[in-house]
Amino acid sequence: MRIHRRILQSYSIPLTLLAMAGLHACGEDPKKEAAAAPPAETPYGSVSEIGRYLQRIEPLKVKIGQLQARYESGLSSNRGDDQRLGTGQNLANLAAELEPQMKSLLESCESIEPPALLAPVHRDTKKLILLRLGAYQKTREGWHVESTEGGSFRLANDQYYRAAESQLAEANRLIQQLNREMSKIYIALEQVSAGT
Fold this sequence. Notes:
The chain is mainly α and about 200 residues long. The protein has six helices and four strands; from the N terminus they run ααββαββααα. Helix 4 runs antiparallel to helix 5. Strands 1-2 form a two-stranded antiparallel ribbon. It has a two-stranded antiparallel ribbon with strand order 3-4. A hairpin with a 5-residue loop joins strand 3 (about 75-80) and strand 4.
């Protein structure tokens, strides 16, 4: 099975902005702060609620990127010409290894309640996980078809491996979209922190 090289983009965020949002979310004495000034607002909601959400979702996003990088390591049989080849077997083995961890991330993601205005970002994060899980399953199913007695690479490729590649490509497009959205969120937080 041949899978084209993909650029993995983690939609990690500047940790200083996360720390600033977290500090604002924690505060010293919430009653004093509430009486002293109205909560800082962004187009996505209050700084404190965004900060709490980002503190919970960021570790999941980092782990999603790590798991996908591990899966992509199965493509690393370098040929010396910047092209990589993966086999159904090595990718299916990696998919089987990573699938439980990705399912755990999905459960963790589902346990987080996003602020209302960040619900679309949260929904897309869950969709990203589901796309990866779907690709892992298709890869395992393809290897099963290919490796059974009388199995056919052509059948596995046509019915499973191409579907897995398609799901991974869609996930990579979604990552780019999420990167853009997260950038807007962090710019909004930065502007509020700077008082602009």
